[in-house]
Amino acid sequence: MTRRTISNYTLTVTAGPSRDPSTHLSVPVNTEQPLHFDTPLLSTDLLVRIQNYRGSASSPTTSPYFSTTPHAENGDKYSISFSPLIFKNPVEGDDLVLGNDFDEPISNNLPPGFSVAWRIARWVIDPGLEGDPWAEKPWLEGRVLSSVNIIDTGDRTAKKVDVLEEGLYKTALNGDEEIPPTGPARMKFFIQEENRKKFTFEKGEKYWLDFYNPYLDFNEFALNLPGVSIHILQYWDGQPLRYVLKNRVDQTVYLVVQFTLTPKENIPPSPSSSSSSNEDSSEFEDDDEVYGDAKESEDKNPNQKSKNPPTEMGHDEID
User: Fold this and answer.
1) What value does the CA radius of gyration of the chain take, rounded to a whole number of Å?
2) Would you list the domain boundaries of the chain?
3) Ramachandran region, residue 232 (left: φ > 0; alpha: ψ -120 to 50; beta: rest)
4) pLDDT digits (tens, 9 = 90+) for 85-141
5) How far is the C-alpha of 179 from the C-alpha of 207, rounded, in Å?
6) Using CA of residue 50, residue 55, residue 60, residue 61, what is the dihedral sign?
7) What are the beta bridge partners of residue 245?
8) What residue spans of the chain are helical by DSSP H?
């Protein structure tokens, strides 16, 4: 049995113009110092913020960003911001996506309740989310226009802590149709394919994007959706989590942001490890009830059923 606890890992964040890690640079998390990229396809300044960050000693554990509106009220856990994003060729609005993909199958490592979480994510969080987590090379993605929380355009005044505000409405659609003025309304508007096809990300224009949510907790490596909590470390197969900004039609990759858990070496055992294990078991007792309902739901969908048996979520021992 191999003992896994989140405190035995360091989260590293890198980014680059391809999925190949050798092309990546380290991202200075929570520093408000953007990582600049200038490639044949785009120019952008990347900011990554993670609440309660367990990573490089040179990075703060949090950012003032999380104390601002609406992030404090939302309880947001992380943010990936392109500030700004400038394409060097036009990109059709229906083609630009941001999402996750993996090199190896994850179906053998999906926890009980995952299909329920997948449906919740598509029904409640992002109705435009598409993907196949059960594929040989799993993927899930959403159109930038309907999935990214905040999109602004044009010039902006620099701030010490740059919290973006919705502003895509300043750009008219092809045909002069107006874009809704708020982020949620714009996201709902662009769920419709016909609306996305009227929009083009123009060459040389400045677009400011901020993608964030309160559901994925990198500090605990957990996914907390309404009604379902999944503690990912229990089922993690070692693959990094990467966010890929790409063209869904020709598969052109513009930028990749990668989150990798790296084991710490020579960590002395915690004197309170025994009590911590007991506390964890108590903390996650309610998950068993949720997972029971999830398993019943999955039994009705055998093609999307997890291949893993249920586990007690408080235990941190994994085969």
Assistant:
1) 20
2) 2-318
3) alpha
4) 999 999 999 999 999 999 999 999 988 888 889 999 998 889 999 999 999 999 999
5) 15
6) positive
7) 98, 255
8) 71-74, 114-120, 144-147, 183-189, 193-196, 273-283, 285-299
